[in-house]
Amino acid sequence: MTLFDRWATALDQFQAQGRYRRFALPKGIDFTSNDYLGYGSRPAPTGGGLPPTGMASRLLRGHHAVWDAVEARLAAWHGAEAVLMMTSGYAANEGLISTIMEPGDWVATDELNHACIVDGLRLAKSRRYSYKHNDLKNLEDGLKAEAARNDPDRARFIVTESLFSMDGDRAPLPEIAALAERYGAHLIVDEAHSTGCFGATGSGCVDESGVRPRVLASMHTGGKALGVTGAYITGSNLLKEYLTNRCRHLIFTTALPPAVGGWWRHRLPEVEADDSGRRSLHWKANLFREALARQGVKPLGDHYIVPVVVGDDARAVAAATRLQAQGFDVRAIRPPSVAPGTARLRISIHADHDRDILVALAAAVADAVHHV
């Protein structure tokens, strides 16, 4: 079999499994993107006269004073010592994990953690313990067994998302932080889907839960609720210095354009002050979930990510196609993004969605899942 035959065979298999993917232009009312506060549909703020490209890595000629200002502003928002800007959430998680974890270290990872966390762990080559989703007892079982090995020269870590991107539920962060302290583990939290949407000023679940001093690092993205390009890692000054000197995902990539730093400076005060947007987001998520319940549909989770499990890949695609034909941009999520047999409609509620449209969507979802 030639290389090209191998590719063609794999694509044929994807087609047969109902897992073939293709690009599609946005169409219909957005219930797919992570634009939770509705900022992504607004015109981009100006770059404030800043250069439009980075031209080099930050350690060469790609650094700009705007990033010092943005990082300081973000650190103050979170009450953290330091922040390090990265090009994307994927690069931030993969780079953080693969840099600070070493072979021989031990890490407990929630079984539903995002692919970028999984890939970071693969690169790190640490000993890995995958615990059942949000299962504190199963997590403690792993920590207890590892503590019994009594290896003071190796570090222990726990990694979790705060709001899970495919199941729409929150991690019990105070309880996980307590276990980390009890067993001498360092806690890392992925806040990609919660940044902007939780807490008095929108800084996320770590801050809302009061566990910031107990967290080694948290990762936050701009490209979801904040509606700007880029991501960042919060932590100590020492962590920032270490990543700056060791993280390949920072050292060997072109820096974000300084003009994007102007967007961050514009957006941060807007997000901090947008308590009404956060209240609207959570209220509309509850309204939609209640409307689904009245239609006999019980989704996973509790928040504005609303997964409706269909099961079979082809049925999930058919249900999504039925909704798209009615003007609702809802997409099917299939393996490997979720476990086999749990293909689903992943509905993303936004603060600027219309109440009546949400009620209509709930009825349409019920009809779609009951008739495919």
3D structure, described in words:
With 372 residues, the chain is α/β, with parallel strands linked by helices. The chain has two domains: 24-40 and 275-370, Aspartate Aminotransferase, domain 1; 65-273, Aspartate Aminotransferase, domain 2 (3-Layer(aba) Sandwich). The protein has 13 helices and twelve strands. It has helices at residues 3-17, 65-78, 89-100, 115-124, 136-149, 173-182, 205-208, 237-246, 248-251, 258-273, 275-294, 313-325, 355-370; strands at 29-30, 82-86, 106-110, 127-131, 156-161, 186-190, 217-221, 231-235, 305-311, 328-329, 331-333, 343-348. The strands form three sheets. A seven-stranded mixed sheet has the order 2-8-7-6-5-3-4, sandwiched between helices. Strands 9-12-11 form a three-stranded antiparallel sheet, covered by helices on one side. A two-stranded parallel sheet has the order 1-10. α3 (89-100) runs parallel beside α4.
Furnish the topology, listing elements before pairings.
Layout: H1 3-17, E1 29-30, H2 65-78, E2 82-86, H3 89-100, E3 106-110, H4 115-124, E4 127-131, H5 136-149, E5 156-161, H6 173-182, E6 186-190, H7 205-208, E7 217-221, E8 231-235, H8 237-246, H9 248-251, H10 258-273, H11 275-294, E9 305-311, H12 313-325, E10 328-329, E11 331-333, E12 343-348, H13 355-370
Parallel strand pairs: 1-10, 3-4, 3-5, 5-6, 6-7
Antiparallel strand pairs: 2-8, 7-8, 9-12, 11-12
